[in-house]
Amino acid sequence: MKIGELSRETGVAVRLLRYYEAQGLLTSSRSEGGHRHYDSEAPATVARIRTLLAAGLPTKVIHELMPCFAGDGTGLQACVLDHLKTQYAELDARIADLTQARSALGDLLEASAHA
User: Fold this and answer.
1) How far is CA 19 from CA 34, 46, 47, 63, 75, in A?
2) Which residue segment(s) compose the domain that 86 sits in?
3) How far apart are CA 93 and CA 44, in angstroms?
4) Measuring CA to CA, which of 4, 45, 48, 80 is 20 to 30 A from 59?
């Protein structure tokens, strides 16, 4: 399948598909003319990438997790659960920091409104 076909099938822009390939998340072969060709598993791979990106994981982490998918779905092997739990804890910490910053900003807005 050519890159345009993969883009249409997955709803992911061609530019992003090239980026995924540059990051080592997606592979293709090249024709003699230099055109990318993807295998029949490429749409499932793109779906997995999109799932992990939606979970807030950076592409470096996604690269590490790609070989760890269990079966055809988006479930991952148990051996990576500790890694996912670490990412989850880091996300919780960022949420806590943002909540604190939001509260402080709200206090400033309230104090400014009364000034």
Assistant:
1) 17, 12, 15, 12, 23
2) 3-113
3) 31
4) 4
Whole-prediction pTM value? 0.77
DSSP state of 68: G
Rounded to whole angstroms, the Cα distance separating 21 from 13 reads 13
CATH code, domain with 21: 1.10.1660.10
User: 65: how many CB neighbours lie within 10 A of its CB?
Assistant: 19
State the total domains in the chain.
Answer: 1
Q: If you search the block for the tokens 């709803």, which residue do you land on?
A: 11
pLDDT in tens, 5-32: 999 999 999 999 999 999 999 999 998 8
Question: By the 8 A CB rule, do 82 and 76 touch?
Answer: no
Task: Report residue 67 as tokens.
Answer: 């070989």
